[in-house]
Amino acid sequence: MNRLEGKRALITGGTSGIGLETARQFIAEGARVAITGTNPKTLEEARAVLGDDALILRVDAADVEAQAGLARTVGQAFGGIDSVFINAGVADLRPVEAWDVAGFDRSLAVNLRGPFFLVQALLPWLASPASIVLNTSINAHIGMPTSSVYAATKAGLLSLARTLSGELIGRGIRVNAVSPGPVQTPLYGKLGMSPADLDKTAQAILSQVPAGRFGTPSEIAKAVVFLASDESPFAVGSELIVDGGMGL
To answer: Global pTM?
Structure first.
């Protein structure tokens, strides 16, 4: 299929997991794609997967000043932007008493502040119509222990999907959210846990998922393709939950 034929797309956090698979599916659907990441190793691995036609940029999602440069670089390279998937994020899970200001500020910067200012910076480059998809989380809806700060940042991002839709729809810009449940991605390997603790955490999470398994990056990417495409013109400020029933 060519549901994104001719679309010019930006995907943040596009070097692994959901972001990389979404970039792969966007390209397969006919889009021209730019991705961002921070790890030189995974940036090169993404280049091997996506090919030389993808624009691959090293950008820290938490760096507010870098967002303007990112928007300008992609906008000038593509001559405009039709679809954006704001996917870069961190999942820092800690008991409430273990939080410090530095960790709190880092989660807020990557998951909420950076995305907000990226949207602001993209406005001069976005086409009409254009689609922005925000990667939020089912954690914005449930009270999972140790997720307090992560869930708060994702709830803020989910709120932006609604409020920015109300503000930007007059410019032809739709903003929607996809809210995954637990997905088997490298994100879980970045939590700093021992293998035994990581397995224990995974089993505890799985016990809350009626589907009885983790989701796959491909399943989330398909939802993003739909929201980014012209198949969803009436989806404005909506949330597509893909969580295996975790939020029931």
So the answer is: 0.94
